[in-house]
Amino acid sequence: MSEEINKEASTEAQKPENVITESSPETKEVKTFTQAELDKIIAERLERETKKRKDAEAKAREEAERDTLAKNQEWEKLAKKHEAELLAAQHRLKELELNELRTKAAAKYQLPLEIAERLRGETLEELEKDAEGLKALIPEAKSQGKLNATVPGGSGKPVTETDQQKRQRLGLA
Questions:
Q1: Cα 149 from Cα 158, distance rounded (Å)
Q2: 28 to each of 24, 57, 115, how far by Cα in Å?
Q3: What are phi and psi of 135, to 5 degrees?
Q4: What does the alpha-carbon distance between residue 49 and residue 41 come to, in Å, rounded to a whole number?
Q5: Domain range holding 56?
Q6: Is the pLDDT confidence value at 21 over 80?
Q7: How many CB atoms lie within 10 A of CB 102?
């Protein structure tokens, strides 16, 4: 009897402790898994899922970095555009201020506005010095008294032109 008990015990010892069976409908085979096999299958599945999750997280991180970089580049372009506009506005302001200073210097030395554009310098003092130099080069106009358009030479007597003189002047006679 002890031999039978030993055989039963050894047969039971060879059986897996946690056995799960799987049956296939086509073959009607029953496959049994041991706990170790199940642990291995679950571990493999967990590894695959963990790898998928890490890959998805890495991909999302890369996309976020690309989006951030793209936004930064847009901001950079916008900043460069505004900087160029600012420089243009500052340049235009400097031109206007310089033109105003030229006009002041020309007015102080009684120069025509056409000459004011030709004055050289960056400050009012430099422009005034140049205006003074130009004023010395321009001869002063002699005062001839009042001229009347109808009275050539300012004699005070109106000059009338005859019809024949008009025809000659116009080249009709």
A1: 9
A2: 5, 43, 112
A3: -60, -35
A4: 12
A5: 16-137
A6: no
A7: 23
The token duo for 162 is 């005859």
The answer as to whether 172 is a domain residue is no
Answer yes or no: is 151 within a domain: no
Of 104, 111, 145, 143, nearest to 127 by C-alpha is 104
Measure CA 55 to chain center. 35
Q: Is residue 28 part of a domain?
A: yes
Q: Long-range contact list for 81-84, CB < 8 A, 24+ apart?
A: none
Is residue 150 one of the residues assigned to a domain? Answer: no
Radius of gyration of the chain (CA): 53
C-beta separation of 123 from 109 below 8 A: no
Instruction: Give the separation between CA 164 and CA 171, rounded to whole angstroms.
Output: 10
SS3 category, 47? helix
In tens, the pLDDT along 77-129 reads 888 999 999 999 999 999 999 999 999 988 898 888 888 888 898 898 999 89
Residues 6+ apart with CB under 8 A from 74: none
What would the pLDDT profile of 36-55 be if each residue is shown by its tens digit?
999 999 999 999 999 999 99
Q: At what angle do helices 124-137 and 35-108 cross, to 10 degrees?
A: 40
* Token couple for 51: 């790898």
- Split into its structural domains, the chain has a count of 1
